[in-house]
Every structure is written in structure tokens, then in C-alpha cells.
Amino acid sequence: MAMQRGLYVGPRLRRMRRDLGLTQADMAAALDVSASYIALLERNNRPLTAGLLLKLAQTYKVDMAALGSGAAEDSQRLQAVLKDPVFAGIDWGAGELTDMATNSPGVTEALLRLYTTYQEGQLAFADRGAAAGAGGEADDASDPVAESRRFLAARRNSFPTLDDAAERLVQAVATHDTVTGYLRARHDLKVRRVPASFMVGSTRRLDRHRQEVLLDDSLDAASQAFQLALQLCYLELGPEIDAVLEGVRFASESGERLTRRALASYAAAALLMPYGAFARAVEARRYDVEALARQFGCSFEQTAHRLTTLQKPGAQRVPFFFIRVDPAGNVSKRLDGAGFPFARHGGGCPLWSIHHAFRTPREVVTQWLELPDGQRFFSIARTVTAGGGGFGAPRVERAIALGCAAEHADRLIYTQDQPTGGAAATPIGVTCRLCQRTECTARSEPPIGRQILPDDIRRTSLPFGFSDT
Q1: Reported pTM
Q2: Domain edge (last residue) among 138, 170, 189
Q3: Which of 143, 178, 246, 303 is least surrounded, with the fewest CB atoms within 10 Å of its CB?
Q4: In angstroms, what is the C-alpha Rg of the chain?
Q5: pLDDT of residue 424
Q6: Would you say 51 and 22 are in contact if contact means Cβ atoms under 8 Å apart?
Q7: Sorting pLDDT into bands at 50, 70 and 90, what band is 303?
Q8: Are 108 and 101 spatial neighbours (Cβ–Cβ below 8 Å)?
């Protein structure tokens, strides 16, 4: 009789046990083995046999491939992190990352957390420097929006654990056809759409007394679907959101609340546009935002927002950045998955087409962009409307831009008739204070470190004249 062949997956087994909140004795009792045997398995002194692997899957309802796939995902995460220029010049063998992720998952996770903390520190340092340059001092406690944005930016707005949890929830909802049916069956909650006057300034409200989820009936279909998905995520995915925030210290309660709200919205979008199905669809439709929005029953903005999150290890798609502004240029949302150097203080560049989109409402405007350091990006911009829903109801017009690095642009449907040469790119800056393009007629203030020429003898045709020194 052939002997069973075993797997040495001790560190992965230990992580799974800890994630389940079990002691070695607890797991041993459930699997009908000794606690010392579990200890030997976790130290890789014994292999995990096929029979015990099957028993693990049946007892804890886990995918049998999960013990092996985790190392591959961690290895891919390490590869992505080690592309950072800070690691330039360090050589490693092809199998080193896989070996580290397999045999030392704790050290791997520590390295990944340390890198995330490093990114947050870099962003915080940039903010302090910008504030000092403006004569002020950065204070996260007084700027919770910046604190929340920095949390998302440090992680490139990608949270695979929330994507995975949302996909599991999608499967559960499918057994009841709709979110409404699932809420009724799982939580004994009815969904009721009522006039705005009854909502007292809310768009969604959970009424525990009457066991109802109330929705403003002036919301469009995409907004209603999103609010229901959001409520469901608050009801069921709280532990997953807590896990993402574990160990993170916020300078203010408001910063933590804004971040928690952003993560809940992320999960709601993942529920409406599940990662696997959405990732396949974006390639099939060549990132056509409007077509994708119709396919998944979401708004243009919701879909554009979701496109910034597709960086799950092993299933990455084009990395995008996203920004939303009002007609005055105020930024109300900013997400970066593409390494775009957003201005953290002050206004953006007026030459960017996002500021021109208000001239042609609801039409997609495309543009090639070139930064002073030579980086090139491709962006699309379009206006979106919030509010309304009835005569006299207030509406807010904003413009959103979605963009990617030039190297990925040929995968987008928007570039099929676009030239890709440098001559087609508009030279822009991050913000006037950081842009050294001295010949720009749209400049509103001088760049840091340049001496302005006096104009008692000569006035230049540009807003400012600069000394060569």
C-alpha cells in the first residue's frame, strides 16, 4: 500500500489556527490528535498528511488549497514591495521570496507591515514639509481627512482581505436572489423606501425598533443599491474592517471614523462589483467605465472608484489614480493606485482637463499628461452629479478624473484613436509651488526656491519672471 505523502506547511497552519482564535489544544481536540502533534506540525517536524488536511477542511470549512496559496500570495506581495526604489541594488534569487513566504510567514508579514509604516511616514513627512513651507505646522488631529487619505495612499487603496470577504458574502446573498431578500432572511430586516421629508436629512437609516432599513426614495437605482450594500457590510464585515485597522494609531477619532467609513465603502463596492467578475469584465470591455457601470448596475463614479482597487496580488489590473473636484477646484476625494504625485496642499494644475470637464457636462474628455520629471500619464475626465431626484432638489456638479501611467494606456478603449507620442502630451505640474516650468502662462504663484525678477525696467509676458540663480 502506497504511503500518504505529506506537506510541510507548519507556519501556515499556525497562522490559520491563530486567525481562528484557537489554542493548539482546541485544534487537537477537534481533529482528534494530540496537542503535541499539532505543535510538531507547526514546527515542520511532521508533515501534514492528506487525511488530516481533509479533516481540517471539513472541520473548519476552509479551502484545502488555502494552506498552500497563502505563501504564493505573500510572495507576490513581497515582489510588489521590493520594486520600490528604496530597495534598488539589492539582489535576491528567484526562489528566495517564495522560501521566505513559505517558511517564515511571520517575518514576511512583519516586513510588509514595516514597509506600509514606512510609506505612511514618508507621506506624513511630505505633509509636514509642505505645511512648514506655508508657514504652518502639520497636525493630523486637526486634519482628519489628510490622515485618512494617507492611510489609503500608503496601501494603494487595495485591501484584498475585504475583497475576499465581499466575494464570500456575494455567494451567500445569491442564495436569496437579492440583498433585500438576504437582509430579510439573515437579519429579519425589511427594506422600505420613503420620501426625503421622512428621512430628516438622511439617505439611509437603520431602524432597529421597527427592524427596517429606510432609504430615501429620491436616490437613483445605483445609489440605492450602494446604500443597501453598505448597510450589509456594516452588519456583517465589521470584523474584517477591524482587522485591516488593527495596530493602526490615529491622531484623532475623526480620522479613524473617516477611514472606517472609507473601508466600509470599499467593501460595499466589492459587494456590487466582486473582484473576480469585475477584473474579468474590465479586460473584456477594455476599461470602458460607462459600459462597466451598466453591466454591474453602478454609477460612473462608483465604477471609476472601483477601478483604483484592482491590485490584488496575482490578479492585478491596470493601476489607476482617481480625483474628484468641484468647480472651485476643491478636492473632495483622492485615491492613488498608480503613483501619481498629487498636490497635498494648494490647488492642482489648471492645464489638466479635469478642470475643463465642466464645459462639456457628462462627456468624457481624454488627455495625455507629462510631468516636469518626464513621467507621462493618460487621464479621462467627466462631470458627475450628486443629489437631485426631484424638482427643486439641490444638485452638486463635480468632475472626476481617472488616469494611469502611459505604459498601460494602450489597454484602455479611450486610446484606440489617440496618438501616443510625446507631442500629444500636455505639460502639467503637480502644483505651481512645486512646478519648475518657468514658461507656463497659467502659473498662479512662483515655485519654491526661485528668485523673482523686478519689473521696474521690464515686465515679462509671463505671470512671473525668474532669475537664473
Answers
A1: 0.71
A2: 138
A3: 246
A4: 26
A5: 78
A6: no
A7: very high
A8: yes
Burial class (CB in 10 A: 0-12, 13-18, 19+), 354: buried
Domain boundary among 138, 158, 175: 138
Closest residue by Cα to residue 382 from 456, 303, 457:
303
CA torsion sign for 158, 159, 162, 163 is positive
Grid coordinates in use for 349? 494644475
pLDDT tens digits for 194-233? Answer: 998 888 788 999 998 889 999 999 999 999 999 999 999 9
What is the tens place of the pLDDT at every residue in 17-72?
Answer: 876 778 888 889 888 899 999 888 888 788 888 888 888 888 887 666 666 555 66
- Are 365 and 382 contacting, i.e. CB atoms less than 8 angstroms apart? yes
Amino acid at 3: M
pLDDT above 70 covers what percent of the chain? 84
Strand order in the sheet with 212-216: 190-194, 212-216, 204-207
150 and 268 in a single domain? The answer is yes
Of 46-60, 169-183, 391-405, the range with the lowest mean pLDDT is 46-60
Q: Judge residue 102's burial from the number of C-beta atoms within 10 Å of its C-beta, 0-12 exposed, 13-18 middle, 19 or more buried.
A: buried
Condensed to tens digits (0 to 9), the pLDDT of residues 4-19 reads: 455 677 777 887 787 6
Range of the domain at 126: 73-138
C-alpha cell at 437: 516650468
State the pLDDT at residue 23: 86
Same domain for 204 and 247: yes
In the numeric block, the cell 509642505 is attached to 130
Is 84 found in the same domain as 122?
yes
**Rounded to whole angstroms, how far apart are CA atoms 371 and 405?**
11
**Confidence at residue 131, expressed as pLDDT on a 0 to 100 scale:** 55
Is residue 23 in a domain? yes
Cell numbers linked to 346: 494648494
Residues 145, 255 within the same domain:
yes
Do you know the residue count of the chain? 469
Give, as one character, the DSSP assignment of residue 346.
S
Measured distance CA(383)–CA(70) in Å, rounded: 41
